[in-house]
Design goal:
The protein has 198 residues and is mainly beta. It is built from 1 helix and 14 strands.
Length: 198
Amino acid sequence: MKHRVARGLLIVFVLLASSAVATAQGAAPGAQRLSARGMITAVAEKGVTVKTPDGELTTVPLAKLGVRRYAPISFNDLKPNDYIGITGKRMGGGMMSASMVHVFPEDMRGRAEGQFPFYGGNMMTNAAVASIMKKGMGHDIVVKYKDKSETVEIPEKAVITRLTSAKKEDLKVGQEVVVIGMKPANGPAEYAVVGILP
């Protein structure tokens, strides 16, 4: 059986220098990572407005957006040393189980390396693939980040994608998205990524 393949998945990078540095190098002193899942309710000159399930509205400046697309790939396209992002939750025994895996382009290797809390009780793990093992209907992969290594379960239903380019015109009202950013100790939140889900 094949892993689930995402269709029409996009990712949007907000090119704010300070948040890009914070995301790549780690949070500035006192800063907090932000992540939320919601739906685009408006696309206008002032920006993309996202509404979360609790009704909160967030507007990300459209002028500062660069757009990328998550292109569907097979699990078999993953290979050792790929730099990947894993969205997942820990199971009862403590092992991480992935719901989505994306492969970064080579020029983004090392971006936000490590593991940190994500929306909906998930964890985000950005790491390099060390090894891949078949396990029942799915797979286990060993990933390495910083001075750590971890085995992650990739179930059959996990979404597997590769990050490629797209355009601002691909942003549409009604798309479900994940918003990622940083909240400095002082000042407004600076959003680094808006990922459009299938």
